[in-house]
Write a structure and sequence with these properties.
By secondary structure, the chain is α+β, with helices and mostly antiparallel strands. Helix content is 28%, strand content 32%. It contains three helices and 19 strands. The strands form five sheets. It has a five-stranded mixed sheet with strand order 2-9-8-4-5, with no helix packed on it. Strands 13, 14, 16, 17 and 18 form a five-stranded antiparallel sheet that branches. It has a four-stranded antiparallel sheet with strand order 1-3-7-6. Strand 4 (54-59) and strand 5 form a beta hairpin. Bound molecules: 2-acetamido-2-deoxy-beta-D-glucopyranose (NAG) (3 copies).
Length: 279
C-alpha cells in the first residue's frame, strides 16, 4: 500500500516534469508543404514560458540557426516567416535555454506548382487523415494521383485523399501528382499509437482551436490521474486507521503468528473469527 502511494507520487511528479520541460511546436497553416511566397507561423506552446523557448532550424545550408537572426521574425516563443523560399525547407524545433527540445517538424517549400498538404505532426492510430493535392494559382479541386513510398495508390477526382482509421502501416513517404501541372515534393507521415506520453500528438489538418482541445484532453487526463491517486491515498489512510484495533485484538492471543506485510490483514480476520468462537 505504501509502495502504491509512492508510485502514485512519482507518477505525478513525472507528469509535472513532462509539462514543465516540454514544448510543443505547432505550424500554421497546418501543413508540411508550402508554396514559395506563402506565410508560415511557427509556435512553441509551452507550460513554462520562463524556460525561454526559441525556434531553431537546420536547412541544407545552415545548422541550428535561431529565428530572428538570419531568418524569420521572432515574437515571444513564436516565429513567423512572411515569404518562404525553397531554401527555408528543413527541420524545425523549439529549444529552451537549458537545451531541452520539442518535437521536430519537417517543412518543405516547393518552387513548383503542386504541393501535398499532409499532416505536419504525428497522426494518431485510428484517426482519419485527409491529404490534399493543391495547385498553386487557383486552389481548384483538380484530379490528382497519390503515391506512397513511390508506389501509386489511387487517383482522386477532387484531389483529396482520405485514409480512414490510420494504422502503423500507413506510415511512409507521400507525394501527389496533378496531370499537366506537376508533382509535389514528398513528405513523411508519422503514425503514433502513444497517447499518454509527453510527446505531443495530433492529427492534421485541424481547425485552429486544435491546441485548446489538446490542453482540455491533457487536463482531463491529469484530473483522472489525480482522482486515482487521491482515492488510493484515502484507502491507504483508512487501512492505517483500522490497524490499531486489529493489533489490540491480537495482543490477547499467543504471539506465535507471522507478523509481516500483507499477512497482517489475513491474520486480523482469523483473529476476529477465533475471538468470536471463544464467546
Ligand atoms: C542539426 O544540425 C546539427 C549540426 O549539423 C546536428 O548536430 C543536429 O543533429 C541537427 N538536428 C536535426 C534535428 O537534424
Ligand atoms: C524529416 O525528414 C527526414 C528525411 O526525410 C526524416 O529522416 C526524418 O525522420 C523527418 N523528421 C520528422 C520529424 O518527420
Ligand atoms: C502524373 O500523372 C499523370 C496521370 O494523372 C501521368 O500521366 C504522369 O505521367 C504523371 N507524372 C509523373 C511525373 O509521374
Amino acid at each position: 500500500m505504501e509502495d502504491s502511494s509512492l508510485l502514485c507520487l512519482l507518477f505525478l511528479i513525472s507528469l509535472l516534469s513532462c509539462t514543465t520541460n516540454q514544448a510543443r511546436l505547432t505550424v500554421s497553416p497546418s501543413s508540411s508543404q508550402f508554396f514559395e511566397g506563402d506565410f508560415v507561423s511557427l509556435s512553441c506552446e509551452e507550460a513554462d514560458s520562463s524556460a525561454g523557448w526559441t525556434l531553431r532550424r537546420n536547412t541544407s545550408k545552415q545548422q541550428r540557426t535561431q529565428c530572428g537572426v538570419r531568418w524569420g521574425e521572432a515574437a515571444d516563443s513564436s516565429c513567423s516567416i512572411s515569404y518562404v523560399f525553397t531554401l527555408d525547407s528543413g527541420v524545425y524545433w523549439c529549444e529552451s535555454r537549458e537545451g531541452a527540445i520539442s518535437n521536430m517538424v519537417n517543412l518543405t517549400v516547393s518552387g513548383g506548382s503542386v504541393i501535398l498538404q499532409s499532416p505536419v505532426l504525428p497522426v494518431m492510430e485510428g484517426d482519419a487523415v485527409t491529404l490534399l493535392c493543391e495547385r498553386k494559382t487557383t486552389p481548384s479541386n483538380l484530379p490528382a494521383a497519390f503515391y506512397k513510398d513511390g508506389v501509386f495508390i489511387r487517383k482522386q477526382p477532387t484531389g483529396h485523399m482520405t485514409i480512414q482509421h490510420v494504422s502503423r502501416s500507413d506510415e511512409g513517404l507521400y507525394k501527389c501528382n496533378i496531370s499537366g501541372h506537376g508533382e509535389s515534393p514528398s513528405s513523411w507521415i508519422t503514425v503514433t499509437g502513444d497517447t499518454l506520453t509527453c510527446r505531443p500528438t495530433t492529427t492534421s489538418p485541424l481547425p485552429p482551436d486544435s491546441s485548446s482541445l489538446y490542453f482540455v484532453i491533457k487536463l482531463l487526463f491529469y484530473l483522472v490521474m489525480f482522482c486515482v491517486c487521491f482515492i488510493s491515498t484515502l484507502l491507504m489512510v483508512s487501512l492505517y486507521q483500522h490497524r490499531p484495533t486489529g493489533n489490540d485484538l491480537r495482543a490477547s492471543i499467543p504471539p506465535t503468528q507471522p507478523d509481516q506485510g500483507l499477512d497482517e490483514e489475513f491474520d486480523d480476520i482469523i483473529t476476529d473469527v477465533t475471538t468470536e468462537h471463544h464467546f
